[in-house]
Amino acid sequence: MMKRECKSVDAFAFYLLKQRGNDFLVPDDFDVILRDVMSGHQELDFLVGNDSFQDRYAETVIARIFYDHNRSWTGRMSFAEFKRGKIVTIIRRAELGIDCGHQTRRKKRSCFSYKDFYVIYSKFWELDDDHDLEISETDLCYYAQGSLTERIVKRVIEGCGKPTDLASNKERSEPHMSYRDFVWFILSEVNKNTPTAIEYWFRCLDTDGDGLLSLYELEHFYEEQMSRMEYARVKRIPYMDSICQMFDLINPTNKSFVTLSDLKRMREPAVFFDMFFNLARYIEHENRPKKLRMRRKMGGRHNPRLGSNPWDEYVDIEYDRLIPPLGDEDDEDTDGDIVFGAHQGDVAATTPSTDQPTETLINEGESSTVTSY
């Protein structure tokens, strides 16, 4: 029966993973194979015996698999999505010890990358003050030192980009974000040019849910950016001037609104999104041509240590900031990665009080605090 139904390795793996009676996979279906990878991978030995840390690593990998390949956004992965995403190949590479270590320098790092996990969980830990694995709207406002506007944060926390997977709780008076929700959020925020990120932010900006971004909706978000420009003492760009500039880049089919298809045709949709809710990054986009010209004039080249896309570059930079090179200060006794305190079963940690969000890291019992930027 099984042999007759499974005509390929993909079909056989899908059959083994799915629950009986289902013709799709849900996130929990991947848990068994993730545990097997963690138990047999040499570079992930430090996770053994730390159930809470294992849970977060597994959640991160599974969330990224669905983020990249569940294009229907249903939380149910079809066989077509499973096969198209080459999930079997991804898992095989991880089982063989490929793509989990932080030294990978492929064009796109695997979702099994421990380095990526470490950065994502560090950022979540930084925001989750009470360490209950939930983030409130107030918590999320501190992300990247408050770089996002309050209006977009409200839309994110309300589940407009991705519906939360948190169970309804009558004791919870305000919407919250789970760790899995946060993985989707940070992947979308750092690299807004991926298909999933474009859809994520389009849903957040589409306040009336009609599938169109009207000039009125866009102005609603831009108003707060204008206030931020004034506060940051940068030249204020009138709304209509910005819209004209964006429409020149987008070339929408209709000048009265922007569609999802319009944005997917853009070479770099991040410029559009950042203009409406991340002023720091928008200014960075504007200054980038000047920096490139300066680099060429000085004979500079792209740093080969950095990744080849916005997400990989972000992870490389953040990982280096979180973990100083071996040999620095008191790191002579360090023979592995720094592990930070986390929820319940993780190594205990105390986050000191400070005016800025901090990450408390634990290196074999010795703590150090790194201020986020």
Structure write-up:
This protein has 17 helices and 6 strands. It is mainly alpha-helical and about 375 residues long. The protein folds into 2 domains: about 1-110, Recoverin, domain 1 (Orthogonal Bundle), CATH 1.10.238.220; about 120-300 and about 310-320, Recoverin, domain 1. The strands form 3 sheets. A two-stranded antiparallel ribbon has the order 1-2. A hairpin with a 2-residue loop joins strand 5 (about 360-365) and strand 6. Helix 4 packs across helix 10 (about 180-190), helix 7 (about 115-125) packs across helix 17 (about 310-320) and helix 15 packs across helix 16. Residues about 100-105, about 295-305, about 330-340 and about 340-373 have low confidence and may be disordered.
Annotation keywords:
5% strand; 373 residues; globular; Recoverin, domain 1; two-stranded antiparallel ribbon
Write a brief structural summary.
This protein is mostly helical and 373 residues long. It is 49% helix and 5% strand. β5 and β6 form a beta hairpin.
Taken from the alpha-carbon principal axes, the silhouette is: globular
Tell me the fraction of residues in β-strands, as a range: 5-15%
In the sheet with the most strands, the strands line up as 1-2
Strand tally: 6
Largest sheet: 2 strands, antiparallel
- In CATH, the architecture of the largest domain is Orthogonal Bundle
Total tally of structural domains = 2
Assembly type of the chains comes to single chain
Strand-pairing-aware structural class: mainly alpha
Fraction of residues in helix: 40-55%
Rg, nearest Å: 22 Å
CATH class of the largest domain: Mainly Alpha
Order of helices and strands: HHHHHHHEHHEHHEHHEHHHHEE
> Which residue ranges are poorly predicted, with pLDDT under 50 across at least 5 consecutive positions?
102-106, 293-307, 331-339, 341-373
